[in-house]
Amino acid sequence: MRKLVASLIVPVMLVSLTACGNRNTQDVEPIKEPVMAKSDSVSSVTEENGTEPEKTEETAVVDNESAPEETGNDTEHMEDNVMKIIAGDTTFTATLADNSSAEALKELLAEGSLTINMSDYASMEKVGPIGTNLPRNDEQITTGAGDIILYQGNSLVIYYDTNSWNFTRIGKIEGVTGEELLDVFGSGDVTVTFSL
Q1: Which residues have CB under 8 Å from 91's CB, separation 6+?
Q2: DSSP assignment string, 62-121
């Protein structure tokens, strides 16, 4: 008798549990978690049917975990576009301009470093002869501290103060003040080495 009661109770409980389970899954709305955007400018939330909205270019960029990697060519180009300037124990790094004058200077420096005796002129610049002529790309320029100029096609000038004239821009020492340049170059003549 006990076996009979037990055998009837077990199926009844299983049927009850199954019915409860079915009722719960049918009556309860599934939880939908929002998809969080990584930028305030892009709002991306799961649609009613449970699928994500189509990605636009903007969201595709936002969803990218990291910035695009620099290719070897980009890095090489940056390195090719840099010149070192040494005076005494100090080395400056200059970014070269994008013109035929800077290209010609790079070709000259590819043969070896260039050491120039530079003189102070008008308490605003150091100037010295290259020993050859480079192509000119003269334009009206107002110089600032760190500007490197090709003057008359045959001299390099490093400015530590302002001047306005028709010059060819060769490059610039970034993030340096006129006072810092004067501390290194001094108020008189100085020997400066240019290299790649």
Answers
A1: 84, 85
A2: HH-SSPPPPPHHHHHHHHHTEEEEEETTEEEEEEEPSSHHHHHHHHHHHT--EEEEEEEE
Residue range of the domain that includes 149? 81-195
What digits encode the pLDDT tens for the residues 153-178? 999 999 999 999 999 999 999 999 99
* Cα–Cα distance measured from residue 149 to residue 158, given in angstroms and rounded to the nearest whole number: 7
The string of pLDDT tens digits covering residues 7-59 is 555 554 544 444 444 444 444 444 444 444 444 443 334 444 454 445 444 43
What is residue 44's three-state secondary structure? coil
| Cα 15 from Cα 146, distance rounded (Å) | 86
**Count of domains for the chain:** 2
| 54-68, 75-89, 102-116, 175-189, range with the lowest pLDDT | 54-68
Does 86 reside within a domain? yes
Residue 64 CA: distances (Å) to CA of 35, 38, 61, 68, 127: 14, 9, 5, 9, 49
Beta bridge partners of 4: none
User: Do 165 and 97 have their domain in common?
Assistant: yes
Residue 37 in contact with residue 59, Cβ under 8 Å?
A: yes
Q: pLDDT per residue over 117-135, tens digit each?
A: 999 999 999 999 999 999 9
57: exposed, middle or buried (Cβ count in 10 Å: 0-12, 13-18, 19+):
exposed
